[in-house]
């Protein structure tokens, strides 16, 4: 999919629409955070996401450059019709090495990425658009961080529960061992008492026989 995303027609179209591109590795931590918000099912794939965070379009697998350009134009047209916005807006796109994802505020994007891990390209219509874009990026980062913290809390709670269960099991095993040792000691005491009783009876019997003689 990199060949399509780096195609001159695709990059030119994205440039005209003022795109921002991010590239994430399919197995990277960033992709893991992203998939908590937008489940990644197929790799590679490209996500077109609106400013409000709702996905507009998702492409799965390899797409030819010409077909991909048509998808971008279709997404732009549909998004403009929904938002009733004529001028192009700045766009944020996320492109993964195996899971490519695009995020758009008015238009889709699939911009180039220079590294295998991540690359960010930001272009805006004016200086006033930059703060709005940065604000949207901050909101997205906050959501990802919230998801990460929530997942971390669940994992920590799971570890705490496992530790509690482990300690309880250890205590139960210790009680069982103590019970078994106590039972064994009691049985031994009963056996010794029985043997002493039998010996006493045997001596008494012998004594009585001797007295008869």
Automatic annotation (TrEMBL):
Q: Which Pfam families match?
A: UBX7_N
- Endpoints of the signal sequence: none
Which biological process, per GO, is one annotated for this protein? ERAD pathway
Which InterPro entries does the UniProt record give? Thioredoxin-like_sf (IPR036249)
Compositional bias ranges of the Polar residues kind: 99-129
According to the UniProt record, where is the region Disordered? 99-132, 152-213
Q: Offer a single GO CC term for the protein.
A: endoplasmic reticulum
Transmembrane portions of the chain: none
Q: What is this protein called?
A: UBX domain-containing protein
Q: Which organism is it from?
A: Mytilus galloprovincialis (Mediterranean mussel)
> What taxonomic ancestry is recorded?
Eukaryota, Metazoa, Spiralia, Lophotrochozoa, Mollusca
